[in-house]
Structures are given as C-alpha cells and as structure tokens.
Amino acid sequence: MNPMLSKASVPITQASFATVHGLFLERARAQPDAVAIEFEGKAQSYGTLVDRARRLAAVLRARGVKPGDRVAILSENRPEYIEAELACAMCGAILACQNWRLVAAELGHCLTLVAPVLALVSPRSREAFEDACPEGLQSLSLGPDYENALASTEPGDVIRDADPESGLLILYTSGTTGLPKGALISHRAEIARMAALQIDCGVRRGDSFVAWAPMYHMASSDQLLATLMSGGAVVVVDGADVVAIADAVQTHSIGWLVMMPGPIGALIEELRSRGPINANVACVGAMADLVPRREITELTALLDAPYVNSFGATETGLPPATAAMIPVGAAEFSLDKAISTMCQVRLLGEDGIEVADGEPGEMAVRGPTLFSGYWANEATNLKDFSDGWFRMGDLFRRNPDGTISFVDRAKYMIKSGGENIYPAEIERVLLADPRIDEAVVVKRIDGKWGEVPVAFIAASEPLDLDDVVALCRGFLAGYKMPKDLRQIALEDFRRSTSGKVQRHELEALLGAE
C-alpha cells in the first residue's frame, strides 16, 4: 500500500461525508430568506430555522445530551418537531419519535427501550407522557417553556465531521411478537431516501411537502427532511385536515402529496367542491393495493398527477419497489411493482437460495436507504440481516418484464390507514384473559382504511365485540382494536401440520359471508 495514501485515508474518507444538517445548512446559506416551514398561515425562513435549531442544540447539550444519546419526542405535528430533528442532527443525538396514539403500556415500552436522556413533550401529550414516563426521565414542554429556553440560550456549535452512519432518528415499527421495535435511521439513509424520492417519483428540487401524516411516521419525517435538504418548504398540518391540505395544493408546487387509505375520499370531495385548481403536484398517494380503483382514478384526474404505486417500509424508505406510477385518470392499471433505483432485490426460497422467475420468494434488500438495525435487538438483527441482506418478510414473484408481483406477507401484517398492525399485538392481550382459549386476528378489506383487524376467538362463554374491545382498551391504541368478532369452536381453527393456525382459512370464512 502506498504510505502516503495510508496517511491520507482518514481525511479522504471524511471528505466523502454528508449529513442531513450539513446539506440543510448549505440550502440555508444559499437562501436564508426562503420559506422553510409554513404552519397555520405563518412562515419561518431558512435563516430563522437554522438559528432556532442551533439554539435547541445548545439547550440539549446544557441538559446533558451527548452524541449518541437519545432524545424522545411526544408531540403532534408542529414546527418544533422539525427543529428537534435538526437540533439532534447538529449535536449528534438521536431523536426517538414516539407514537402519540399508543396507550401507556405501549408508550412506556417504547420509552424504556431507547433510554432517552430527555423528552420533548407537547401540552396535548403531557398527560399521556406522565402516565408512561420512566422514573427519572427529565422533560421539556413545547410551548412557553421551550420558547424561554431557546430565548435564553445562544446558538450552539454544529458538529461538522459527523459520520453519516451515525443515527439520526428512531422510528417505531409494530413487532411480530406484539411489542414495538425501534428502527434506527442514519444520516446516510435519509440522504439516500431523498435521492430515491427525486429519482423514482419525479419530485423536483425545491418542491414543497405537506407534512400531515404523523411525524413519528416515515411518510412525513423522511420527506420533510428531504425537502429541507433540497431547498423546499414544509407545510405542517396537524393531521388529515383536507381543507388545509387542499389549500397547500392550491398555493404550492408540491413534490409528493402523501395520501393514504382513509382520508382519500374526503380529499376528493374537498377538491371536487373547489372546481379546477390548477394543481402543480409531481405525484400523489401511496399503497395503491389498498385503495379503491375509482378513488385512484378520480384523485389523479383532479390533481393531474400520477399515483405512486408504492412498496416500502420504515426500514427501507420508499424502496425497494416504488418506481412505478399509475397514469393520470387511468381506470384500468396493473398493481405490479417496479424495483426502485436505489436498491438491489433478491427473492429467496426457504433455503436462502434465489428462486426462479415466476416462483414466490421472500424479498431481501440491499442498498443505501436501509436502516441501521433495530435498537437493542441483537437477535432480530442477526436473523433479519442474514448474509448481509435485509429480509423484508414479504413474498413476491418476479415477472418476465422485470416487475414484481406481491404474493403474501411472510410476516403476517395488517396495514390500516397507513399504520402497521401485527396480529400478535392484539392476540397477546386477548389470550391473557382466562375465558379465551384461542385468539387469532386476521385482516379484512375495508373501503375506508384499506384493511382492518377482525378477531376469531374460542372462549368458555359467549363474548361480544364490546367485551373484546374492553379487554384491549388500556393496552392497545384505538386503531388496533378489532373491528369485528367471530366466536368459533376451538376445533374449527384450521391448523397446519406444524400446529399453526392457517389465517388464510379464517380470511376465507370472512369472504364467504
């Protein structure tokens, strides 16, 4: 090896580094007066956002936060959430984004899992935080206390040579065992996800983004960071307020207008009531498989924008298969997926060998958008990252034209209104009741939410849906509650030769009614 190259290897490596806050600061330097955040009719410039994020970074340091430490946030969508993401980037901390829809037991698990040094809590979430807060965890309330802390603190220094593999966010995913897992997202992954958004979805540099989906969800956090690294404006909306979303569409050039099963129908009605709006939207939608075709047809026509035929995950971002668009106004279209540019895909059999085209196989993914593993979960990481590829737990079939067709979920999951629900989350609560001998949760197609959970139980006495919901209340978020109940005999649960209940047989019972 050339000795001069050896001595230069460290600075050469550092010269290749890029971080979320580094790219954001470049945009802010070029356009300090441009709008970075818009919320409830008020605009915040890039220059102001830099100042506030640096002040918050100094506040975090003063309260004991060091590089690699976790800072939890429990809040609805608001500008301070974005400031917290950037401030953590600037001081090397990791923001653990808590799901405010969870009940105390679930939230307590998520907080304890990541052992945060500090929590940022909105007034709306204060009571829920107090109910779930681990002993000794300090917090800072968003609002007057937060503003006073920023006003009394000088802007802090920014970490300049942070490793792009450093963690930036922890986003939670529902676990197959019934407990949420924390997916660690690095600077590298967020930058690559920005590239995937622009390469495969036609999003233009400087486009705005409407952050209405919860910021604890990748659908908002990935895209708002990509927008700020690209010089666009983030329009913050507190939930699926279709009037505010439609207003943003009429006044901004939007890149990807995220839209999920649930609010699509209401947005169509709002847009239709306004007449022609001359929207400038690069693409719209997500999870086309779970949306009625007539809604896709009408929404794309109203916005003159193609629909995103997506297949991604918290762990992977928009890849591995979000490169296909459903044309504007199309009434007939394929739901086959196109593999994203920023990844490699293999379809594997149970023996770990790649299957032949046309045969179903579990999707394994490799690429720069991937997360950095599940927090404090070595066993799952060793299993899911087998052979240096991330196993998605979803079965696909490769077609002759290179597209892939969804077959089934190897890890059975219900996708309801953009939220992931694993049956084990509900089943473990039901089976804790001594009256219930067996409980199996399956998905039912739903015109509004895409899919909803339905519980099949065998019990020693008759139970109704209200009884089951009461058992779940206090242990599960509202969207995870069973929406229907079927009580059947224990021997009517069809099982495989290994004794596992065959969920597709129960789904068939629903379909036959």
Q: What structural keywords apply?
A:
Rossmann fold; 16 helices; six-stranded mixed β-sheet; four-stranded mixed β-sheet; alpha/beta; 513 residues
How are the SSEs ordered, and which strands pair?
Elements: H1 3-15, H2 20-30, E1 35-39, E2 42-45, H3 46-62, E3 70-74, H4 79-91, E4 94-97, H5 104-114, E5 118-121, H6 126-132, E6 138-141, H7 144-151, E7 167-173, E8 181-186, H8 187-201, E9 209-211, H9 218-229, E10 234-236, H10 242-251, E11 253-257, H11 264-274, E12 280-284, H12 293-303, E13 307-309, E14 312-313, E15 317-320, E16 324-326, E17 344-348, E18 360-366, H13 378-384, E19 390-398, E20 404-409, E21 414-416, E22 419-421, H14 423-430, E23 436-446, E24 450-459, H15 465-472, E25 484-487, H16 503-512
Parallel strand pairs: 1-10, 3-4, 3-5, 4-7, 5-6, 9-10, 11-12, 24-25
Antiparallel strand pairs: 1-2, 7-8, 13-16, 14-15, 17-18, 18-19, 19-20, 21-22, 23-24
Helix pairs in contact: 3-4, 5-6, 8-9, 10-11, 11-12
Overview of this protein structure:
This protein is α/β, with parallel strands linked by helices and 513 residues long. It has two domains: 18-326, Rossmann fold, CATH 3.40.50.12780; 414-512, ANL, C-terminal domain (GMP Synthetase, Chain A, domain 3, 2-Layer Sandwich), CATH 3.30.300.30. Helices cover 34% and strands 24% of the residues. The protein contains 16 helices and 25 strands. It has a six-stranded mixed sheet, sandwiched between helices. It has a four-stranded mixed sheet with strand order 2-1-10-9, with helices on both faces. Strands 17-18-19-20 form a four-stranded antiparallel sheet, with no helix packed on it. Strand 11 (253-257), helix 11 and strand 12 form a beta-alpha-beta unit. Helix 8 (187-201) crosses helix 9 (218-229) and helix 10 (242-251) packs across helix 11 (264-274). It is globular, with a radius of gyration of 23 Å. The protein starts with a helix and ends with a helix. The mean pLDDT is 92.
